[in-house]
Amino acid sequence: MAINVIRLPKVITKTGLSRATIYALVKAGQFPKQIKLGSRSVGWVESEIDSWLEQQLDQRG
């Protein structure tokens, strides 16, 4: 199974959250943590973002 890593602009598009909100949620442990891709770049595992979105849908009832 291939792991897709997405960068911040796509995370913003998929979630509708702002950059600041994403990083605040990561810091609070309420959003998937990013992975380091290089010395100055990070990304997120797309399946983890998708799972987070599904949890948000489940929580709304």
In brief:
The mean pLDDT is 96. The protein has 61 residues and is of the alpha+beta class.
Summarize the topology:
Layout: E1 5-6, H1 8-15, H2 19-27, E2 35-36, E3 42-45, H3 46-59
Antiparallel strand pairs: 1-3, 2-3
What does this structure look like?
This protein is α+β, with helices and mostly antiparallel strands and 61 residues long. The chain has one domain: Recoverin, domain 1. 51% of the residues lie in helices and 13% in strands. The chain has a three-stranded antiparallel sheet with strand order 1-3-2. β2 and β3 form a beta hairpin. The chain is globular and about 40 Å long. It starts with a strand and ends with a helix. The model has no long low-confidence stretch (mean pLDDT 96).
H/E element order: EHHEEH
Q: How much helix, percentage-wise, in residues?
A: 40-55%
In round numbers, the mean pLDDT is 96
- Gross morphology is globular
Name the descriptors.
alpha+beta; Recoverin, domain 1; three-stranded antiparallel sheet; 3 strands
